[in-house]
Amino acid sequence: MQKVLVLDFGAQYSRLIARRVRECNVYSEIVPYSITAKELKSFKPTGLILSGGPASVYADSALKCDTEIFRLGIPVLGICYGMQLMALELGGEVAHNGISEYGKTELRSNGGMLFEGLNKHQQVWMSHKDSVQVAPKGFSPTAATKTSPVAAMEHLEKRLFAVQFHPEVVHTPDGKDMLKNFLYNACGCKTSWTFSSVIKDSVAMIKEKIGHGKAICALSGGVDSAVAALLVHEAIGDNLTCVFVDNGLLRKNEGQKVEETFAKHFKINLIHVKGQDRFVNMLKGITDPEKKRILIGNEFIKVFEEEALKKKDVDFLIQGTLYPDVIESGGTADSVVIKTHHNVGGLPEVMKLKLIEPLRLLFKDEVRSVGEELGLPEEIVWRHPFPGPGLAVRIIGEVTKERLDILREADAIVEEEIKNAALYRQIWQAFAILPDIKSVGVMGDERTYDYPIVVRAVTSEDAMTADWARLPHEVLEKISSRIINEVAHVNRVVYDISSKPPSTIEWE
Ligand code: XMP
Fold this sequence. Notes:
CATH superfamily of the largest domain: HUPs
Number of domains: 3
Strand content: 15-25%
Number of strands: 21
Structural class: alpha/beta
Largest sheet: 9 strands, mixed
Bound molecules: xanthosine-5'-monophosphate
């Protein structure tokens, strides 16, 4: 398969570059900037992209690449820092004069392969201090801005291209077309990365690895484990067993939905462990959030292990590790070292199971698309993230069956009303929290002394930062009146208007 490698010089946008390339239906992977030309060749890349980076090319700590890569005959696109590095290493002049360009900038192109078919006047996104003043010998400047005389350049014969701006961000509206010009025209890439090809290749890879062996997979009800399980099921059918542990801390009807989808619809061997009492009893008297997390995590491993050990001839464990986890742990798609998934950590060692990670090449949104392609119901594909310890970390104080029932009902109303208002996909997470206090209310002629429910809805890209969602007042009103009317022991609803940081998304 053709692939374009992104050399990561520490830019916040490196992942975005890889994702954009994939959106152009060309497979892309991220590799460290320090990769040698020899190592690069072994990947047989069709093209290379040098990412941006936070440092100046003149800094002592500047990240430099093996300059041989410019002589491999592989087309290269330098972006921002990547352009400055290319210019400096190939004999151009890079100014370090303190003049910077930030934000939306007007650019004028005078031709060049990257701008083919595009308007000569472009809006682009800039974010740099140093800038190329004189292009290296043999290069032609192909665009300029008011402050950057060489805002883009190319050496057609050597297939070297560079842009000072960021074509990968949405604030460069024609950026994707520029990337397409690089991929299709400069590199000669074909559109070979599609979700049906991803599925076909993954299934073939899994078949080859597992052969006639048996595999086990923990289903959580979330999209990652669901897609991982479906891919493996496509490959090995009944030799896959899924284990779904209902720990009593799940959202309303979750167990039933998992059973209907996986056992009934997809006909996957499913062990549905009804562990509600076991988990709730274990949590008796526990109020410390971290203690709750540890107890729940360890108990989950115990239950999963018990079930896995009952199936004597299992050799493989399926995990839904995603590509960002692989990058974070410093691996590439071909390397083996990865972070162990926290939900089933330790398990492979105890049981000597071999790990299969069908999603390790995919970004989250790609997992969703693969899920859609595999016929996974929209409800699971687009499900909001849910913490492993479940409702236990949304109940402040002690977790009891009564308090779980209150929270679960209130949470279901929040979800339902957000969906009714067609806001579900725009919102990262929306849920209810049950605090450990009571307040006075009046219902009919009666004085009540009951729990409040906190409603939390946030927008976010990746859960690292988040902002409280500006829900329409009518939606909040509906949520509030329904919860108070329909959920016993709740007489007040409040809305959390804190962003992350300084708050977190969850309350515990
Ligand atoms: P916070 O509350 O730290 O949450 O802003 C960030 C994201 O992580 C989820 N979260 C967890 N997920 N186990 C998980 O699997 C946990 O213990 C846990 N705590 C928080 C949270 O829902 C949000 O998406």
